[in-house]
Structure formats: structure tokens, C-alpha cells
């Protein structure tokens, strides 16, 4: 029977550490959150980030732009924020409307204020191991793994999914801690067999109940990054929890696992950005 990894508890501890540091040093820290359009999920995420900022003592600046905002207008706003000394971190909520090119927007954000760590410069720094920021979700996953007392060094790790936001940086962070890492994707042959080798299995594929018990090694640490809706429209992850939980040593629930960590790491990155700009 697996032990549950409590993302709410771990994330709360990180937010408290950020709050205590800001309070004790009397820091003024500001995060700009830009949202374009009326995507309901994006609105929920933005509201949650504002609540976390309030808890940590970070000033939150919201820029809510209409759906029809032109790419140039958005880039002009970001350039203004780049030059604003009150703004330490800039986050543009994704996805953007289809007429706006995401890569152009990410490229416009100053690497020193890129608290999502999506800018090509920050991605390159992560690859070589000389980074100021880490992408929030993979960084949160590492914190959850560490919270179990698991030593990543020498472990066989499998990451399902190769997105720029989770899969690729996740593999890099595990590699930096001397794991042997395999990245699986839609073209991987014998996926279940590859996954069964994993001491640590991270799924970020975005498909409900994708990971089943026959894909999991006895005693593995299982991290579920997925945030999906099942046939009953209930929130669920990539992992078929009831099947996999008896085989794992540790497992993250959905909700309450990786989700809260993403916002906690954003707070930590914003504080890091403040120091980087001082």
C-alpha cells in the first residue's frame, strides 16, 4: 500500500518559507500576471496565483486583456513590464488566443523576469545546469520526490511525455541528480515494459487513467502530473490510481499532489528573481 505524497502540505511549507523570508528582510516583491481572453481554466489559475501572492506577501499586478488583443500590443505591454522596477516576475498565462504566437511572447519576456523559465536562455541554462529559475511544475515534482526521502542518485527514472513545459525539463532535473532517465512518448515501443523498469515514474501525458498497474514496478515512486476529466467529468490524473496505488511505495493524488506545487514554486521563483535583479 503506497504512502500518499501530500502536495498541499509540501507546497504550504514552501510558501511559508517564501513569506517568512520576504517579511524578515522587508522585501518589496512584485509579480505581473497577464491573461488574454476569457478561458475559464486560465481564470481559475490566475485567481489561485493571486491568492498565493497575497499569502506570501508578494504584490500581484494583473493585466487582463481582451481576446482580440493584437500580438504587438501584448509584446509592447511585456516590454513595459520588463522595464518596470516594481515588477520582479512576469507570467503570461497560457494558452494564448490562436492569433498570438506563444514563442514570440515568451521570447519578449526578460530572462531575468521569466519566472516560468520558458525563455530559450533559461531553457539552455537548465540543460547545462547553470540556472536562476526552474520550470514550476518539474521543480515542484522534484520537491515532492525529495519529501519522500527518496535518493534520486542512481535510480532508473521514466518520464512519460516530452513537452517543453514538463517532460523535457523534468528529465533534465532528474539527470542533474544522477538518475538514469528515459523519456517516453507516442512513438515509444513497448511502453509498458519501459515503464516497469522505473524506480521513479513521472507521467505528464495528459490522458485520463493512462498508466495502469501492469506499467508499474513494485515499490516504485509514482508522480502523476496529469490534470484531466474522466467520463464522469471528475478531475483525475494520468494514473489509474486505484489500480496503481497498491503497487507503489509513494504516489501523488489528483487533485492535491503536483497541482499545488506549481504555484508554490512560482512564488519561490519570483523571490529568486527579486534577488537576481538586486
Description of the structure:
The chain is an alpha/beta fold and 278 residues long. The protein folds into two domains: 27-112, Leucine Dehydrogenase, chain A, domain 1 (Rossmann fold), CATH 3.40.50.10860; 136-259, NAD(P)-binding Rossmann-like Domain (Rossmann fold, 3-Layer(aba) Sandwich). It contains ten helices and eleven strands. It has helices at 7-25, 40-56, 71-82, 102-108, 120-128, 136-147, 167-176, 191-195, 241-244, 258-277; strands at residues 3-4, 30-36, 59-65, 89-92, 156-160, 180-184, 200-203, 221-224, 228-229, 235-236, 250-251. The protein has a six-stranded parallel beta sheet. It has a three-stranded parallel beta sheet with strand order 3-2-4, with helices on both faces. It has a two-stranded antiparallel ribbon with strand order 9-10. α6 (136-147) packs across α7.
Short description:
With 278 residues, the chain is α/β, with parallel strands linked by helices. The protein has helices spanning 7-25, 40-56, 71-82, 102-108, 120-128, 136-147, 167-176, 191-195, 241-244, 258-277; strands at 3-4, 30-36, 59-65, 89-92, 156-160, 180-184, 200-203, 221-224, 228-229, 235-236, 250-251.
Amino acid at each position: 500500500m503506497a504512502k500518499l505524497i501530500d502536495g498541499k502540505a509540501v507546497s504550504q511549507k514552501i510558501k511559508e518559507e517564501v513569506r517568512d523570508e520576504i517579511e524578515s528582510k522587508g522585501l518589496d516583491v512584485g509579480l505581473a500576471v497577464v491573461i488574454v481572453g476569457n478561458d475559464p481554466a486560465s481564470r481559475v489559475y490566475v485567481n489561485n496565483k493571486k491568492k498565493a501572492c497575497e499569502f506570501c506577501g508578494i504584490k500581484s499586478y494583473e493585466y487582463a486583456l481582451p481576446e482580440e488583443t493584437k500580438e504587438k500590443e501584448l509584446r509592447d505591454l511585456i516590454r513595459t513590464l520588463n522595464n518596470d522596477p516594481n515588477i520582479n516576475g512576469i507570467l503570461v498565462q497560457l494558452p494564448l488566443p490562436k492569433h498570438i504566437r506563444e514563442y514570440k511572447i515568451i521570447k519578449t519576456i526578460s530572462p531575468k523576469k521569466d519566472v516560468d523559465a520558458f525563455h530559450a536562455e533559461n531553457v539552455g541554462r537548465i540543460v547545462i545546469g547553470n540556472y536562476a529559475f526552474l520550470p514550476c511544475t518539474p521543480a515542484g515534482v522534484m520537491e515532492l520526490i525529495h519529501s519522500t526521502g527518496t535518493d534520486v542518485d542512481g535510480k532508473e527514472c521514466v518520464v512519460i511525455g516530452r513537452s517543453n513545459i514538463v517532460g523535457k525539463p523534468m528529465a533534465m532535473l532528474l539527470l542533474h541528480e544522477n538518475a538514469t532517465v528515459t523519456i517516453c512518448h507516442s512513438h515509444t515501443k513497448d511502453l509498458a515494459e519501459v515503464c516497469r523498469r522505473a524506480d521513479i515514474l513521472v507521467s505528464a501525458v495528459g490522458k485520463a487513467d493512462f498508466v495502469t498497474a501492469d506499467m508499474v514496478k513494485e515499490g516504485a515512486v509514482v508522480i502523476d502530473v496529469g490534470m484531466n476529466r474522466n467520463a464522469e467529468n471528475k478531475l483525475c490524473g494520468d494514473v489509474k490510481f486505484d489500480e496503481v496505488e497498491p503497487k507503489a511505495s509513494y504516489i501523488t493524488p489528483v487533485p492535491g499532489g503536483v497541482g499545488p506545487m506549481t504555484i508554490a514554486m512560482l512564488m519561490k521563483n519570483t523571490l529568486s528573481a527579486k534577488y537576481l535583479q538586486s
